[in-house]
Design a protein that fits this description.
Elements lengths: L2 H30 L4 H11 L1 E6 L2 E13 L10 E3 H13 L5 E11 L1 H12 L5 E9 L3 H6 L3 E4 L4 E4 L12 H21 L4 H8 L11 E4 H7 L4 E2 L2 H11 L2
Parallel strand pairs: 2-3, 2-4, 4-5, 5-6, 6-9
Antiparallel strand pairs: 1-2, 7-8
């Protein structure tokens, strides 16, 4: 073996040893349960959510944004939250030993009633600490989602639109149709009033209010007003929501 060949082989061996050291360091980080920026970014791209692991506990952050998509696919240029993604994820989070609490970041225009209520019922049924933070807006069916948690927060600039049930497409003009609308609306009202401090009559009066929106019936309320009405628990920011979650961890 020539001197040049020996030198090349030694360099290759050093590279292998270096790579092995890197792999061992990576394995140590994994054993510690740590996650880094690269892993966070990939989780966000894949599912719009991320799990962070710290000494204070492990929290999963899930975004509910755009339109709450139902049985019909949203338009291609519309951002949407898909219930077939969120529902199994919630079930997995509830059972996971690696997640201690869940933070929901809300900025939604509303959407499908059945899908929204289904997601809200799953969140309300979780035993782990859960918190919501309303950013921008949590309108229409986004309201049950905002109040379904153990503790709800809203930034001062947050907006929430309360309005009667709507339906697009062909509607049969018959008494039974309006009775169906009323029963559907009752499901929403009952869920909201069961999961927050707002009075049922007050919520209905806000829903049926006229004169506030130019082309619609209902009300738009903002962060501090939502707290005064009992719809949201607390005006707060991201750090407030995180600190509350950490305080609830066992």
């Amino acid at each position: 073996m020539t001197k040049e060949t020996k030198t090349k082989k030694t360099t290759e061996d050093d590279d292998v040893d270096s790579k092995s050291d890197q792999d061992r360091d990576r394995d140590k980080d994994t054993d510690k349960g740590g996650t880094g920026p690269e892993e966070w970014q990939q989780q966000i791209v894949d599912s719009g959510s991320v799990t962070t692991k710290t000494k204070r506990g492990n929290l999963h952050c899930l975004t509910i944004i755009g339109q709450i998509e139902g049985h019909m696919t949203a338009a291609t240029n519309t951002k949407a939250t898909k219930y077939e993604h969120v529902m199994p994820l919630l079930a997995a989070l509830e059972q996971s030993d690696e997640v201690d609490g869940v933070l929901f970041l809300l900025n939604t225009v509303g959407g499908d009633i059945e899908a929204g209520l289904g997601i809200a019922e799953l969140i309300a049924g979780m035993s782990k600490p859960t918190a919501s933070l309303v950013l921008g807006g949590s309108h229409s069916i986004g309201i049950p989602l905002a109040v379904s948690v153990k503790r709800s927060f809203a930034v001062p600039s947050a907006a929430m639109t309360i309005h009667p049930v709507r339906m697009s497409g062909t509607v049969i003009a018959a008494p039974q149709t309006y009775h169906y609308f009323e029963r559907l609306q009752d499901r929403i009202v009952d869920f909201v009033t069961r999961n927050c401090a707002i009075d049922k009559d007050k919520f209905l009066s806000l829903m049926m209010k006229t004169g506030e929106m130019a082309s619609d019936v209902g009300s738009v309320i903002y962060g501090e007003e939502a707290v005064r009405l009992g719809l949201i628990d607390q005006v707060g920011t991201l750090s407030d929501a995180l600190n509350w979650l950490y305080s609830q961890l066992k």
